[in-house]
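Researcher: Quick test of sequence recovery. Tokens follow.
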């Protein structure tokens, strides 16, 4: 069966829904919605050269998809990414190879030097990456919590919070989200990873992060110390049963006080009260402190990915 590659058609909901179906089948540990896919494409910074590719059979069925673009916010030029997913029920048609080839051609034409790809840590996926010249680097874990049944630690009542500490929902910053941008920028800079990111464009952050339809501003929780943002737990949801910890971070000056646990505990309790039954998160395998926090809540590792890379000059 011949498979063809094309771009996702902006504004065509059936296309976005097909991408969601493939992503959920290939990687069921992440939040995926049609609105989120459409937003991902429409909100991308021009310098990102972001594309969503689909692999389609002659009868019009989408069996694979890939996200690809330039890591424009990296302080090191020439960094890029491709993440390809093939529906497990339709492997063996060559969709993955065609998606990867199209993505690499796109990246090379825009001056990319290194391309990074997250690869599920299982034999077939690793073998595919290595056949195409990719080499493994650091790993990250997906973690899952049965939110409906979890024995969550009770969040402290407001009067029992440490002196000067208060918890607020992300929605409390609707009029001025800049303090959350500044907190996100500092904590992201300290995140372990292969490709560094400098968050220094507030308008871009508003467009891509704050206005993301998957970001649940009511469940996102912020810990303040004497009125200053000190820690936060950003939450994304699918509008159904799934909750994702998109980012949990504490500013350097406030670390070691348990503020991330406070923020995340409050967020998880509110998520359960809102009817969400599964909670997911992801952690770099070397991020011991955050892995310990999530283990404390009852999260368990459910899958692992490895970051593979290839030098495009070898093409």
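Model:
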């Amino acid at each position: 069966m011949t498979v063809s590659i094309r771009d996702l058609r902006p504004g065509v909901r059936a296309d976005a829904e097909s991408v969601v179906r493939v992503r959920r089948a290939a990687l069921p540990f992440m939040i995926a919605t049609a609105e989120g896919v459409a937003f991902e494409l429409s909100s991308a910074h021009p310098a990102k050269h972001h594309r969503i590719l689909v692999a389609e059979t002659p009868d019009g069925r989408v069996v694979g998809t890939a996200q690809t673009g330039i890591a424009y916010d990296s302080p090191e030029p020439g960094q890029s990414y491709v993440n390809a997913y093939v529906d497990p029920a339709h492997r063996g048609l060559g969709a993955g190879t065609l998606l990867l080839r199209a993505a690499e051609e796109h990246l090379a034409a825009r001056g990319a030097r290194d391309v990074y790809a997250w690869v599920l840590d299982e034999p077939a996926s690793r073998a595919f990456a290595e056949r195409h010249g990719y080499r493994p680097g650091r790993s990250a874990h997906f973690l899952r919590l049965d939110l409906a049944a979890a024995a969550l630690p009770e969040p402290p009542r407001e009067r029992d919070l440490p002196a000067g500490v208060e918890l607020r929902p992300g929605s409390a910053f609707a009029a001025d989200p800049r303090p959350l941008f500044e907190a996100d920028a500092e904590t992201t800079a300290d995140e372990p990873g292969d490709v560094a990111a400098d968050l220094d464009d507030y308008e871009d952050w508003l467009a891509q992060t704050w206005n993301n339809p998957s970001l649940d501003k009511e469940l996102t929780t912020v810990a303040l110390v004497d009125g200053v943002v000190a820690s936060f737990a950003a939450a994304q949801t699918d509008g159904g049963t799934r909750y994702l910890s998109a980012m949990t971070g504490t500013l350097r000056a406030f670390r070691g006080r348990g503020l991330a646990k406070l923020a995340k505990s409050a967020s998880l309790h509110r998520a359960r009260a809102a009817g969400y039954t599964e909670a997911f998160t992801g952690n770099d395998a070397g991020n011991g402190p955050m892995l310990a926090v999530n283990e404390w809540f009852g999260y368990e590792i459910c899958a692992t990915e490895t970051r593979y890379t290839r030098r495009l000059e070898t093409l």
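The mean pLDDT is 94.
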